[in-house]
Design goal:
The protein is mainly α and 150 residues long. It has one domain (2-144). It is built from five helices and four strands. It has a two-stranded parallel sheet. A hairpin with a 6-residue loop joins β3 (95-97) and β4 (104-106). It starts with a helix and ends in a 28-residue tail after the last helix. Mean pLDDT is 75; it is low at 123-150. It binds zinc ion.
Length: 150
């Protein structure tokens, strides 16, 4: 129980700091339940307490009047943020290297830029659904329309 409480305190602190420091917080709308069914990922996902973290994020977002925006997670780690081409890679591949335009970037940095560009391209809606199901805060499922950067 002690570990659970510390984890919760940590998630709360990080979420609070994020909301204080940023007018807008954009996150990937991960399907946590779906991911946890995958046994390889289950441990890291539950350790990260993603769902708990997200609840705190939405709580502080509302409290401080910040925009919390969730975007669909589809292909965020595969897509090249420079040219939009999808580059499939395994979870262990830490570098995004685009065969189409030659863009090279750390995997998570590239994914974060893809996530941001989806919000900016769509003018995403603020999400302040602190209590509901995680899937109910999804912003626009039509990822095919976001391919205009090509
Ligand atoms: Zn590229």
């Amino acid at each position: 129980m002690k570990v659970t409480r510390q984890r919760n305190e940590h998630a709360k602190r990080v979420a609070r700091n994020l909301c204080l420091a940023n007018a807008k917080v954009v996150l990937e709308d991960l399907n946590v339940r779906g991911l946890v069914k995958n046994h390889k990922l289950a441990k890291s996902i539950t350790d990260a307490s993603w769902y708990n973290f997200r609840q705190w994020l939405e709580y502080f977002g509302e409290k401080f009047g910040r925009e919390i925006i969730a975007v669909p997670p589809h292909y965020t780690s595969a897509e090249c943020n420079n040219c939009g081409v999808r580059v499939q890679k395994s979870l262990s591949t830490r570098t995004h290297s685009c065969p189409h335009c030659g863009h090279v970037e750390q995997r998570d940095v590239n994914a974060a830029k893809v996530i941001l560009s989806r919000v900016n391209g769509r003018g995403g809606h603020p999400q302040t659904n602190a209590s509901g199901d995680i899937s109910s805060t999804l912003v626009g499922r039509k990822t095919s329309r976001s391919k205009k950067r090509r």
